[in-house]
Amino acid sequence: MVASHLTMAALLLVAGARGDLVLTPDTMAQHGFSIACRFIDHTITEGTKPTRPTGLVLVQVSFDAEKGQAINKIESATLVVRDGDTVLLSVPVLASSYPKGKGIRFVQFSIHKDMLPKAQLVLDEGGQGWPVSFRIDLNAFYKAK
Fold first, then answer.
1. CB atoms within 10 A of CB 17
2. Considering the entire predicted model, what is its pTM?
3. In whole angstroms, what is the distance from residue 85 CA to residue 78 CA?
4. For residue 19, pLDDT beyond 80
5. Is the pLDDT of residue 129 over 80?
């Protein structure tokens, strides 16, 4: 019984280490991704002019499957907000796919600007064996804009 728990713990550690790949503007290409992020401040409009910000940011993440083919293996996306090791929020994100079900093409959601430094878009591969999770560091893309 103890041996089976130790084996399971070892497997989880290996899986966690394998799935801990962070994507930033500097690291995305080495992991086979081409990612573009766009951040648009939400504002309240009175008449024809935006008058005041709401604190929310529209985040648009798009993937180029020709320049970064790793996206073809991705089956799901989840918005995760953490404070250290504590997960504050984990929400599946609806993503539009390329034709013929080959990977994700575009993801869009809104988040409060104060949460961006703690937010990551987690991309999960499908399949059997040891699927990998990639974490897009949204704040790194926000700072690079």
1. 9
2. 0.79
3. 17
4. no
5. no
What residue ranges in the chain does DSSP mark as E strands? 21-23, 35-46, 49-63, 74-83, 86-93, 95-97, 104-112, 119-125, 133-137
21-144 is classed in which CATH architecture?
Answer: Sandwich (2.60)
Q: Which of 85, 88, 95 is nearest to 116 (CA)?
A: 88
- 3-state DSSP assignment of residue 125: strand
Q: Any residues with CB less than 8 A from the CB of 122 and at least 6 apart, and which? A: 77, 78, 79, 80, 133, 134, 135, 136
Predicted local confidence at residue 10, as pLDDT:
35
Please list, in sequence order, all residues whose beta carbon lies within 8 angstroms of the beta carbon of residue 54, skipping any fewer than 6 positions away: 41, 42, 43, 44
User: Between 81 and 75, where is the model more confident?
Assistant: 81
